[in-house]
Amino acid sequence: MSPLKSGRSRLAIGCAVVAMATAAIGPAWADPVPSYEKLLERIGLTPGALEAEALVDAAEARARQAGVRPNPELSLEAENALGTGPFSGYGNAETTLSVSQDLELWGRRGARVGVAQAEGRTSLLRRDLATLDAAGRLALAYAEAEAADRRFVLAQEALDLTIADARALMILVEEGREPLFRGIQAQSEAAAARAALDEAEAERDAAFARLTAVAMLPNPATSIENSLLDREPPAVVPTSTASPEVRVAEAERDAAESRIEVERVRARPDVRVSVGVRRYEAEDATALTFGVSMPLPLFDRNRGNYDAAQAEFRAADARVMAARQTTQADLAGAEARLRSASSRVWATDAGVTAAEEAYRLSRIGFEAGRISQLELSSSRAALIAARNAAVDARLARVRAEVDLALLQGRAPFGTSL
C-alpha cells in the first residue's frame, strides 16, 4: 500500500471513530427542573432564609423579654443569735424577712424595650434582604445551568459540523482536489471539537450540581424546559424607595441611637425599695421594716459606655451615608448594564443569523471547489463563536437583572416572593 493511500485510510478511520464517538453521546436527562417560579416558592427553605427567620424569632423573643419587670428579691436575716453571753442561743435573736424591688426609674425599662424593638426591625429587614439575595442566587444558578446546557448542545453541533466538513474534505482528498495534509488538519479540528464537547459536558454537570444544591432539589437536576435566558426582564422603572441595603443600614443606625438612651439612663442610680417583718425573740414581738437603697454615683457614672454608644451611632450614620452613595452608583451601573446586555442580545442574535448564512454559503462554495478548506474552517469557527456569544449575552442579561432587582428590593424578572 502506498503512503498516500495509507494516510487516507488512517484519516478515514480517524474521522469514523470520531463520528461514532459523537453518535454515542446523547442527553441522558430524564426529569426537567421545575420552573424558576416554582423553585422560588420554596425559597423559604434555603439555609440563608431559615437562618434569617430564626434570627427574627430570636429578636422578637428578646423584645418580649425586655418588657418584663425584674423579679423581686426575698431575703431572710438573723441578728444577735448564736453568739456569747446574753446572745448565746437564739433567745435574743432578731429575724427579718423582707422583699425588695427595683423600681426601674428614669425610663429604664422603656429604653431597654426601645433597643430590643429596634433590633427586631433590623432583623426583619435583614430577613427580607436574605430572601432577596437567595432569590437572586437561585436565578443566577438557574441561568448558569441553562447556559451550560446550551453550550453543551452547541458543542455537539460544532462537532457534527466539523465531522461533516471533514467528510466533505475527504471526498475532495480522494478525488485529488485537496492535498492530504488538509485532511489531517480536518482530523485535528475534529479532535479539538471532541475535547471541547467533553469540557462542555463537565461544565454542564457542574452547573446542574450547583443548581441542585442552591434550589435544594430532592433529586439531582437534569434538564431545563422553562427558559430563563430567553425571558425579557421587566422595563427599568426608577424607584423612589431605598434599597434593602440602605434600609438595613438605617435600621442599624436607629438601634444604635436607641442604645444611647439606654446608656444615659444607666448613669442614673438604681432605686430599690424594701418592706419586711422583723421578729424580736426576747420581747416576743414583731415589727415592720421599710427601706430605700440606691448606689452613690461617686466613681462610676457610665460615661465610657455613653460615649461609646454615641461613637457607635456616628459610625452607623456614616455607614448609612456610604450605603446610600454606593447604592446610587450601583443602581445607575446596573441599569446601564441591563440596557447594554439587552442590546447585546439583539446584536448577537443578528450575528448568529449572519454567521449561519455565511457558513451555509461557504459550505456550498467549498463543495463546488470555489472556497478553500481554510475559509470553510474560518466560517465554521465564526458560527460557533457567534452562537456561544449569544448564550453569553443572555447570561449577562440575567446577571444584570439579578443585580438590579436586588438593588430595587424585588425578585428578579418581576416574580413575587
UniProtKB/TrEMBL annotation:
Residue ranges the record marks as coiled coil: 183-210
Pfam families found in the cross-reference section: OEP
Gene Ontology MF annotations: efflux transmembrane transporter activity
Record carries keyword Coiled coil: yes
Cleaved signal peptide residues: 1-30
Organism domain of life: Bacteria
Keyword tags: Coiled coil, Signal
Cross-referenced InterPro entries: MdtP/NodT-like (IPR010131), OMP_efflux (IPR003423)
PANTHER family: BLR4935 PROTEIN (PTHR30203:SF24), OUTER MEMBRANE CATION EFFLUX PROTEIN (PTHR30203)
Entry's family note: Belongs to the outer membrane factor (OMF) (TC 1.B.17) family.
Annotated protein name in UniProt: Cobalt-zinc-cadmium efflux system outer membrane protein
Species: Brevundimonas halotolerans
